[in-house]
């Protein structure tokens, strides 16, 4: 199995650990003074800590939204985002944990865009779309 790597930045390692590890349920694979990494299937998602980052003021563009699947799509910015496909039970659990934690969400409930989607912001304001990898219809 090939591994894909994504290298991102964050300003608060503790908040990043909690968001991606505890709330999303990704497996933490290393933790260092200025960085942390998670693994999900064949993807390693790594974060290096910086003193400051420019925080997006809105939501990142998601391709499906612009093609009519989300009729009331918000105005978007050209900023980075992350998409994470989860198994159905993991998706439902992550949504419950994110909602209970009061994480900023695009909509209060998952919504259908050809698959079930739940879109939130991580601690640095990055748009993160969770999708239910097992869905076949609403």
UniProtKB/TrEMBL annotation:
Residues 1-133 form the VOC domain. Keywords: Dioxygenase, Lyase, Oxidoreductase. Pfam families: Glyoxalase. InterPro entries: Glyas_Bleomycin-R_OHBP_Dase, Glyas_Fos-R_dOase_dom, VOC_core. GO terms for molecular function: dioxygenase activity; lyase activity. It comes from the Bacteria. This is Catechol 2,3-dioxygenase-like lactoylglutathione lyase family enzyme. The keyword Oxidoreductase applies.
């Amino acid at each position: 199995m090939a591994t894909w790597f994504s290298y991102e930045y964050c300003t608060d390692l503790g908040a990043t650990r909690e968001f991606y590890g505890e709330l999303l349920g990704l497996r933490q694979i290393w933790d260092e003074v200025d960085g942390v990494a998670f693994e999900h299937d064949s993807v390693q998602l790594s974060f290096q800590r910086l003193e400051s980052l420019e925080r997006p003021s809105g939501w990142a563009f998601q391709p499906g939204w612009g093609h009519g699947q989300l009729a009331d799509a918000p105005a978007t910015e050209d900023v980075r985002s992350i998409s994470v496909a989860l198994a159905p039970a993991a998706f439902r659990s992550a949504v419950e944990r994110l909602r209970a934690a009061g994480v900023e969400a695009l909509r209060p409930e998952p919504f259908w865009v050809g698959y079930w989607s739940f879109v939130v912001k991580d601690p640095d304001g990055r748009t993160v779309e969770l999708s239910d990898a097992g869905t076949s219809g609403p």
